[in-house]
Amino acid sequence: MEKLVVEINLFFLLFTYLFVQSEGQIIAQFTRLSLNYSLENITSLSGIRTVSYCAAECTRKRDSCLVISYDSEQRTCNLSNQMAVYSKTHPVSQKTVIFTRVLPPSCPEGWTMMDVKKACVLNKGKEKVSWNFAKHECEQIGAHLPYFDSNEAFDWFRNFRNNSTDTHYKNVWLGAKFETKEFQWGNGNAYGLHNSSDWWCKERGEPDGGGICIGSFPIGNQFLLRDQHCNNYLAGFLCEKDMDHMT
Ligand SMILES: *[C@@H]1O[C@H](CO)[C@@H](O)[C@H](O)[C@H]1NC(C)=O
Ligand SMILES: *[C@@H]1O[C@H](CO)[C@@H](O)[C@H](O)[C@H]1NC(C)=O
Ligand SMILES: *[C@@H]1O[C@H](CO)[C@@H](O)[C@H](O)[C@H]1NC(C)=O
Ligand SMILES: *[C@@H]1O[C@H](CO)[C@@H](O)[C@H](O)[C@H]1NC(C)=O
Ligand SMILES: *[C@@H]1O[C@H](CO)[C@@H](O)[C@H](O)[C@H]1NC(C)=O
Ligand SMILES: *[C@@H]1O[C@H](CO)[C@@H](O)[C@H](O)[C@H]1NC(C)=O
């Protein structure tokens, strides 16, 4: 059983409470609500409890606990996965405080978290399509072909592709294309795409005018960027979506 010794209120004004272990590791993060709620689908923790104990129990129960109702006078608490407003018909005691768990960011099932960018990635490598089709497919689900604007993001992507043990196509489209006078990512950035001396295309003479749409291709033990025809060349693809826009 984890020992809870401190209850720090680091951001009092934001009503965010962090419950930490003696070593300082954060084990739970809650937001305090200044509303009169009573809860549905409750589990009452018996006996006199500290709010830290209740928070730890709630965190341990994962998805089945999202909210705590703590009576600071009786020192009892209810845990629940649901909230309801019953302030008129079932008023809670004035000494009752409600906390909701701050859930860690996550990606929906089937998507992989791209932690370096706070984005989620969906591997559509089982379909072999044109760049134009891939772009459209991603847009249909509110996503876009992947953009990279840092070495970290590109390294992540390379490892992700290299780790994949399935039979997906290894050649995949990225969200970059020749626009007016230079290659650009779909967000207008040209990071890593400026010219063939840049690192991602280095020593390969890419882009070589084979097309104006960019894909990632495994060559030897490297993943390189190459330009290919946007309609005639077929490859797998990935869709990327900001984590903030997932729901
Ligand atoms: C909560 O209840 C108390 C007492 O019943 C009341 O004074 C207060 O205005 C209520 N707060 C909200 C946000 O409804
Ligand atoms: C009550 O919570 C349990 C555990 O999370 C859940 O399985 C059940 O569906 C919930 N009941 C209702 C009515 O929401
Ligand atoms: C817990 O739930 C019970 C039953 O609904 C209620 O009587 C009690 O006031 C609740 N306690 C807290 C701290 O919310
Ligand atoms: C790739 O695999 C390594 C070793 O298993 C792992 O540490 C890393 O997180 C993986 N990276 C990605 C992006 O999947
Ligand atoms: C190519 O990119 C490098 C580094 O970004 C830059 O120093 C160089 O001037 C560029 N060359 C041309 C021809 O644009
Ligand atoms: C892919 O992984 C293998 C073995 O895990 C490694 O030797 C190789 O360098 C990696 N390739 C890339 C492009 O990261």
Automatic annotation (TrEMBL):
Residues 1-24 form the signal peptide. InterPro entries: C-type_lectin-like, C-type_lectin-like/link_sf, C-type_lectin/matrix_domain, CTDL_fold, Pan_app. It comes from the Eukaryota. The keyword Transport does not apply. Keywords: Signal. Residues 116-231 form the C-type lectin domain. PANTHER family: C-TYPE LECTIN DOMAIN-CONTAINING PROTEIN 180, RH26557P. This is C-type lectin domain-containing protein. It comes from Bugula neritina (Brown bryozoan).
